[in-house]
């Protein structure tokens, strides 16, 4: 089995090279830390609770280094709870998160799905080359990625099926929530409208809203990026599985010339 994104060591998490993002050899892609935060929240609240919304504030580059997590319920309730989590390296805060979790109950209801999903299968999508990062191992090799539209080297909207090749934490099977959160941060990277050789478009945050967790290994990220005239952008992604839409993700972007 491929190496995990993290190894659990003495209550902390040691990041492996699988977490490496495309912008710097020393820094993680935001997807694995987001999934790690989601895992901590799942362990805190238990399986009867669903993560309805998670917002992660990225406080700076997240190094490929040992990290620790703290999570707490700040607004307890019988049906809805608010959870806060913080990710540290040594004493330095790397990311802060807030999540609303809602108690699961079967209602038998399912509203109209509209046009926010694609009726497609991962087998109908194709792998495309990743842009040159200067290294052979990282998030781009830890994930299997197949495109229905666009590509890493293309500009504009993109839709990609994604699944983890290994596990989030060594020795564990990743949860359904981990599978979607590890992919939710790619919208900005696959749907950029500017040449990444000339511009940076870095997200300061990630918000994920989920009506349910995905079924199966694959998650579809259908992404669009909007760029304003003053160096600010927004990436929006519809998240789906083979059965239809499961939620959305948004990222606030800083646009700057290199």
How would you summarize what this structure contains?
The protein is 11% helix and 42% strand. The chain is mainly beta and 258 residues long.
If you had to describe this structure to a student in words, what would you say it looks like?
This protein has four helices and 13 strands. The radius of gyration is 17 Å and the shape is globular. The protein is mainly beta and 258 residues long. Helices cover 11% and strands 42% of the residues. Strands 1, 2, 3, 4, 5, 6, 7, 8, 9, 10, 11, 12 and 13 form a 13-stranded antiparallel beta sheet that branches. It has one domain: Acyl-CoA thioesterase, double hotdog domain (Porin).
Q: Provide the residue-averaged pLDDT.
A: 92
Low-pLDDT segments, ≥5 res = none
Q: Roughly how many Å is the radius of gyration?
A: 17 Å
Q: Portion of residues in helices?
A: 10-25%
What general outline do the C-alpha atoms trace? globular
- Find the CATH topology: Porin
Total number of helical segments? 4
Give the amount of beta strand, in percent.
35-45%
CATH class, anyone? Mainly Beta
CATH architecture: Beta Barrel
Structure class: mainly beta
Q: Major beta sheet, specifics?
A: 13 strands, antiparallel
Q: Domain count, please report it.
A: 1
Q: State the end-to-end CA separation.
A: 38 Å
